[in-house]
Amino acid sequence: NTVMAPQMTNAHRRFLQVLMSNGITEGSEARKLHQHCCETDKVYYAHDKLDDFISTINSHLQPLFMQIRKGISEDDGRAHYAVVNLAETEVTKMASDYTEIELELFRKTMELIILSENGFASSTDILNLADQLKTKKMKKKEAEQVLKVFVEDKWLSEKNGEYTLHTRCIIEMEQYILSNYQDVARKCNICHSLAIQSQVCESCGIGMHLPCVRKYFRAQTEPRCPKCNEFWSCDIP
User: Fold this and answer.
1) Of all helices (H) and strands (E), which one includes residue 165?
2) Which pLDDT tens digit goes with each residue over 75-99?
3) Of 204, 177, 174, 2, residue with least CA distance to 71
4) What is the CATH code of the structural domain delimited by 91-174?
């Protein structure tokens, strides 16, 4: 006796369509969209039922190997939603949008960011990679343009010439990164999702997102590691 998944309404379909065309949607926008779709379609709307609304859509996306996933911005800790293709967790899903050489630059940039201490790679280091691509060498000017496109398409974020992975990229590539960089990729000790920009305990090596560090230590009288209880030596953001 199988439990039937709740019906997909036009409200669900409209919500999914907008999410797919956005690439990534910030939490407050998703909540507004949820309300708008329900009211337009004249179906029941409850402001605290966004997760249920999304899980109904996900139960219908399952046979298509797709899923709406929630992720947290490493910058400010805000929730974001993105539609993830589970059949192609690898960088292959980007292959339809970019050339082979652009993808190689992206992979190498992603690797620089993952292997870095602070979750950032400088434009200088990335542009130096452009000379060493296997597919073919890329001129610095060309590489700068490609990086700009990756930022526009929300795969990378850029701040003062430093690049990191955009929230969209982290949501979509989490499994790929965790399985391909097992030795270095770490999950946040607090929220258990992949942490690229993080603080790391000097004693036991666990990592925490900066927003999670802020939240966690707000409630503590003195900053001690949640795992080994040693004094937390990083500056609390």
Assistant:
1) strand 162-165
2) 889 999 999 988 765 567 787 889 9
3) 174
4) 1.10.10.10
